[in-house]
Amino acid sequence: QVQMVESGGVLVQAGGSLRLSCAASGRTFSRYAMGWFRQAPGKEREFVAAVHWSIGSTRYADAVKGRFTISRDSAKNTVYLQMNSLKPEDTAVYYCAAGLFRFSVGLSSRSNEYDFWGQGTQVTVSS
User: Fold this and answer.
1) Which residues lie below 8 Å from residue 88, measured CB to CB, with a gap of 6+?
2) Distance CA 19, CA 73 (A)
3) How far apart are CA 12 and CA 126, in angstroms?
4) Which of 39, 44, 49, 74 pairs with 91 at a CA distance of 20 to 30 A?
5) What is the pLDDT along the chain (127 residues), one digit of tens a residue?
């Protein structure tokens, strides 16, 4: 079965950088979209970024464009989220997710397009 395990979430000061990792296992992901979502207290889960595993195309939420970078290491079956210039508003539990890519949809920002989810990792940005 598919497993997604996030790591790297810590307390960091505003303006700092952090890299989250998501170790994926259970199958090959060449036809999958890999995504990062986040959920802050009192808010709905929101899309952060996505990448097509084999093609490498990416998509970002407006709130993180220019600051965050999603990438993947096929040899390690790991997806990364490099977060720079962090703001207190970035404080949230960050989740990685995987879902079969559909050409009719593209890299989706909708949670329900992703079938497999990690447990989440807490990122706290202090001001």
Assistant:
1) 14, 125, 126, 127
2) 14
3) 6
4) 74
5) 999 999 999 999 999 999 999 999 999 999 999 999 999 999 999 999 999 999 999 999 999 999 999 999 999 999 999 999 999 999 999 999 999 999 999 999 999 999 999 999 999 999 9
Q: How far apart are CA 40 and CA 94, in angstroms?
A: 9
Contact 25, 2 (CB under 8 A): yes
